[in-house]
Amino acid sequence: MGRGNNRRRSEPLSWGVLRDGKAIWSINAVPGHSVYGESLRRIQGMECRRWDPTRSKLGAGILRTRNDASLLLPEEGTTVLYLGAGHGTSISHLHDHLCGEGNELKGRLVAVDLAPRCLRELTHMAKSRPGLVPVLGDARQHAAWGVLLPTKVNWLFQDVAQAGQVDIFIGACKRFLALGGTGLLSLKAASERWTGEGEATLFHKVEQQLLNSGFEVEERIELTGYEDNHVLFHVTRQE
Ligand SMILES: C[S@@+](CC[C@H](N)C(=O)[O-])C[C@H]1O[C@@H](n2cnc3c(N)ncnc32)[C@H](O)[C@@H]1O
After folding, report:
1. Which of 84, 178, 212, 218 could join 160 via S-S bond, C-beta 3.0 to 4.6 A?
2. Which atom of ligand 1 is found nearest the CA of 88?
3. Whose CA is nearest to atom 4 of ligand 1?
4. Distance 159 CA to ligand 1 centre (A)
5. What are phi and psi of 112, to 5 degrees?
6. Ligand 1 centroid to 158 CA: how many Å?
7. CATH number for position 165
């Protein structure tokens, strides 16, 4: 996206994503089409979709991070892995950024979910979004779909909201994330094994587990307000 002077408050976060105050927008890779009822608006001659942070933990993380928000996005035109794709809300914006219209950027977004209903919706979405690769699979069963990722990726996102989500994330990163690569773990407190401790203690323990497993914890992003009882861990793989 051009970085012209006449965009008064808009701040480009990437080629296809910009922040405008408390709103985030992605350039629509399927012009004229709204994915989940989000509003469309022309910004500098390009049609953009409003990225709703209450429907997307990645979007919430972008608005909440105290660091450079562009660090939460993968490099355009690369291959990335997304575990727990759901109905494709975040996936659609990520696709706008990673692939662009007709996949002009030649990105590849491998999106795994174990719910057949989600896969039906993602498969439908993939028809108009080349570069999106929906996979019906379990994030824990690498052997079933790992063949789609012959080389390691530099960006991995997980939002499975199920018990053992930290172990699942660590296992997936060890298998698929390159050294120095960015990992993002959306952690839902209520999904973890609950031992009666407060949320703050739980999140602290998870942070220690990530550190002990060879990750640098760049930031723990509180999503409360957009997604209560959730944090987004931003890590880089060190070993
Ligand atoms: C909170 S939703 C994901 C929402 C999505 N990330 C978004 O922002 O639009 C969690 C998803 O994880 C999926 N899921 C749960 N356990 C999983 C597993 N072991 N492997 C793959 N997907 C899983 C569920 O089917 C569900 O669609």
Report:
1. 84
2. 9
3. 86
4. 6
5. -105, 135
6. 8
7. 3.40.50.150
Look at residue 24 and tell me if it is in a domain: no
- With respect to residue 40, please indicate whether it lies within any of the assigned structural domains: no
The predicted model scores a pTM of 0.94
How many structural domains are present in the chain?
Answer: 1
pLDDT in tens, 69-120: 999 999 999 999 999 999 999 999 999 999 999 999 999 999 999 999 999 9
Atom in ligand 1 nearest the alpha carbon of residue 118? 27
Domain assignment present for residue 159? The answer is yes
121 CA to centre of ligand 1 in angstroms:
13
Give residue 63's domain range.
52-237
- CB-based pocket (< 6 A), ligand 1: 56-57, 83-84, 86, 89-90, 112-115, 118, 138-140, 159-162
Residue 169, phi then psi, degrees to nearest 5 = -65, -45
Q: In sequence order, which residues have a C-beta less than 8 Å from that of residue 233 and are 6 or more positions away?
A: 183, 184, 185, 187, 206, 207, 210, 217, 219, 220, 221
Q: Which of 157, 174, 153 is nearest to 79 (CA)?
A: 153
Residues 187-239 pLDDT 10s: 988 766 655 567 888 899 999 999 999 999 999 999 999 998 899 999 999 98
Tell which atom from ligand 1 comes closest to the C-alpha of 57: 8
Q: How far apart are CA 142 and CA 152, in angstroms?
A: 13
- Domain-embedded: residue 184: yes
